[in-house]
Amino acid sequence: MRKNKVLSVLWLIPASWSLLRTMWMVFMHGFRKRETVNYPEEEVYLPPRYRGRIILTRDPDGEERCVACNLCAVACPVDCISLQKGEKDDGRWYPEFFRINFSRCIFCGMCEEACPTSAIQLTPDFEMGEYQRQQLVYEKEDLLINGPGKDHDYHFYKVAGMAIAGKDKGEAQNEEVPEDVRTLLP
Amino acid sequence: MATIHVDGKTYEVNGAHNLLQACLSLGLDIPYFCWHPAMGSVGACRQCAVRQYKDKDDNKGVLVMSCMTPAADQTRIDIDDEEARAFRASVVEWLMINHPHDCPVCEEGGHCHLQDMTVMTGHDRRRYRFNKRTRRNQYLGPFIAHEMNRCITCYRCVRFYNDYAGGTDLGAFGARDNIYFGRYAEGALESPFSGNLTEVCPTGVFTDQSHSDHYTRKWDLQYAPGICHQCAVGCNISPGERYGEIRRIENRYHGEVNSHFLCDRGRFGYGYVNRADRPRVPEWTERPGQEAVTLGVDPALERITGALRQARRIIGIGSPRASLESNHQLLAMVGPENFSTGIESREQACLAMMNRLQETSGLPTPTPREIERHDAILVLGEDPVQSAARLGLNLRQAVLSRREELAEQIGVPAWNAEAVKTLGQDRYHPLHIVWPAPTELDSVAVARHALAPDDIARLGFAVAHAIDPAAPPVDGLDPASQERAGEIAVSLLKAARPLVVSGGSLASEAILEAAGAVARALSRRAAQGGLVLIRREANSTGLSLMGGQTLDWALDELSEGRADAVVVLENDLYQRLPADRVEQALARANTRVVLDHQRTRTAEGADFILPAASFAEGSGTLVNLEGRAQRFFRVFEPAYLRPETRIHESWRWLHTLAAGLRGEAPGDISLDLATRACAGAHPGLAGIVDAAPGPDYRIEGLRLAREPQRYSGRTAMRANLDVNEPRPPQDTDTPFAYSMEGYSGFDRPRQQIPFAWAPGWNSPQAWNKFTDEVGGHLRGGDPGIRLIRPQPGHREYPDPVFDDGATDSSGLRALVLPRVFGGEETSARAEPVRQRMTAPVVILARPDAEALGVRDGDSLTLLGVREGDSLMLFGGPDITVSEQEDWPPGWAGLPAGLLPGLGQGATLTLGKPTGGES
What we know:
heterodimer, B: Ubiquitin-like (UB roll), Barwin-like endoglucanases, 4Fe-4S (chain A), repeat (chain A), EC 7.1.1.- (chain A), cell membrane (chain A)
């Protein structure tokens, strides 16, 4: 009976150990490198594939990449992208306007995944706070940058078969010269 | 009926179909490209392979093309067979080896049959490592864009364009894998049905250029069931809106009216809705010549009621291009004794006669689809392709259906298109055209008799007499005409289902009376038959059923001072009567109120303009030429994206205005109330209430969605105005919601379908899911209510009465010829249609041309027009002379729409251009 009483308080040993260990660990954290940064005085490191502020990029030749295909808009789960297709004199499609309502955007990156031309990309930037919500509506001039973004090489019109000024039929990737329909020769 | 076994299940199908058609009708998916319900099978694309077994014990079977195999009784097939699936996947892979990787910049993307079929067969990676064949494009005019790289050589385009629609300028060139579909040289496609290529082509080779100019993907458009307002056929359309503009018109399947096809005027003539110069807010011009000021809704209504209250008498001028509801509200406001239909007197007399003939001629009026089942046709004084284009296509099918008859005799099924065509060659059902100018149907006609209007009527009466000797004879007919009449009579009598087509294009009651006499004679001699009477405008039939005084009467009341205020509803009076007459009458009025969606000349001279809704922003009811009342619904709410606009339906404006005149509060008005008011007041229109379901119609408790489920950009499209999104517009008038929330599926039968979509079917081929059998009728029934029914009773023949046949010696008489592009007021304001209008031509007989000292190709100037006692002087425009061998002397053929207000038969003074000034 007495022996049982002694055994019943034995739990105190591991419990006290755990308590002391925890206190020690907390104490030791005081000597570790700080994870908290002094934002905004100190900059935050964001990995290159971080999903932040959305941009529109240009192809390696400096032309707008967006061809206004509307796939980003339809992929967007909160429907915060709207745009209108236009056509330049050289035959390229481009967005006449391109609007993202960042007050609705959830930075899911679906638009980037849907984009067939690597035009729309998410960037490691989250500093978009505004006092006026209206300021969160970005138009094309707010979105378009002067560079290819993360994808340095892709050039949609060099792959696609549509002819534009400076790239005729037959000059895209894997293309023969246009057929002469007036010949029946094999 | 036949019993077939598909994948181990047993189905009952129509034995006259092929297996593909039968399976699609059952709702089973088989991929296909070259087959089309309206054009039959040719077995060109090899996509619809299935495995067919000989009998129950056969477990090997063979692969067959389901489109080329009859759905015979006890046919056993497997669609879901491993080898058949692999075969279909390879076919798509072959078709795709040259595909240009340009879906993002392709207008077809998102409603592309090729995309659908590629997904259906499971092909998603390119394995072919070699080069792609490329081909150059052509300029095909303002309607159609061309991108030959996307072609998969299914031959649907040329089969539609040449065989079905009778075009001659599109062809297949080249050989083997080097096939090219295009014109022999660049230029606009000539056929007025070229727009259907955009829906017939399963890929993006032929796309809608007018849509591409302000392109929006199919899933981003907001739709509502619409009715085409560009002629009297009443084709069902799906207008698509984005950002407050109509972006595209697509065919909306109707089993009896337009089935799969529209004409180009209807498809590309919508641009007037988007014009920047449209009145969008009420306008007030205090004194003529002053700048107009814009007003808010309440100040405008107050000023108008103030001005109208001072009037002694208000004349209301309605319009055959406005809805019945709007016309009725105007009639109710001014009173029946002050209401004019806004139709010129001769046209109105013709319309009344056409309604009467439809009831009493003894022959029923077939629906456009029923027209295709007639086997002898007389077109008397009408050019159907120009005045009611879609009917022209039906008439062509009627003539061509002789092929199917011949095929049936030797047991070739009607769907076997190429065999049927080869067998038929140029054997057609007889088509007799009596019309002075060349028509699109001449190539399949027995003969065209070029006659002057009175002679057309004479010939018609002679035909009636030849069919039934009890019909009164025509005195003094020359032997040649007598012989012609005999020939026509014999060919109509030989037919099982003869058809008489006529209409009001020549504004001649004599011609209509003659057509009625032929119909009556046929009804006494032949078992079955039909009479089709073509009206000019979208609601001509409806307005003539409603009744009212003529426009001439209204102008007389004004110019003679018996009324001093006028309210004009969606009508440009200058298009109907000579300008000086209209001007003089309107100048006498103290208050001129115009409700319109276009800035017409009438609107410009008005004191008040109220911005009316076009078919895109408004709902209402129209009655087409067969007497079918059909409802069209508003596609979008214009004030949502452009809050400054104050566009409302005319019936809403007029209802409020009428209440204001009575000094009452406006009270309730809705589409339903407006329709019921109209139906209640006019017994002939009582049926219109049932033309479409009311605002409480729900499917499984849901409203019907105007937007596809994938509609994008909702939270951004209006964010430039205000980031705080307002509540979407609520629609209390119709069962449709301005939202993707609501029913948009295909499995619950319904009549009102804003857009066709089914899972896996994004292209217009999705209509197959909505029909009872492919190419049949909508499962929910074809929309619309027929108002005009033949009345039984024995009636006598009318005595031949002719217009004054006397040719005026002082000049040539005008023969205004209807034309598809430019012959209709509103579509002529659309940019692509303007580009497509042909240069004006005056057709003259050789002696008349010689008398004027001109030859074919020279220019003439119109110096003056005399009509009754009104004389107009012109200084132009220059018109090219076209001499025509058989043209009736004494007449000058001019295209409709060239000189607004030019009446049929007016005397013209033509002269050589003086060069420079006039």
